[in-house]
Amino acid sequence: MNEETQKRIIMMTSTALAGLLSSKLADKLIKVPEERGVKDDVKEAMLKASFSLASTIIASIVIRQILGRRG
Fold it and tell me: What is the pLDDT of residue 24?
């Protein structure tokens, strides 16, 4: 499998993983006030960015390990 295909698989996997993690855990980790402010939006953005970073790293490791064993 070529490098471009691997990058696409990693991107799709990490996007799905980040979406699942952030939707399930963000509401549990962030207490949503009645009236949201900029501070609350920043917290949510940082949390989602962290999930995105972590899921990209995890997907990259998993995909490259799987493909490395085959090749």
Answer: 75
Say if residues 47 and 29 touch (Cβ distance below 8 Å): yes
Q: What average pLDDT score do residues 29-39 get? A: 77
Which residue, 9, 22, 8, 23, is CA-closest to 53?
22
Packed helices 3-29 and 38-70: angle between N→C axes, nearest 10 degrees: 140
Contact 17, 55 (CB under 8 A): yes
pTM score of the predicted model: 0.66
Residue closest to 29 by CA, chosen among 12, 17, 7, 46: 46
- Give the separation between CA 38 and CA 24, rounded to whole angstroms: 22
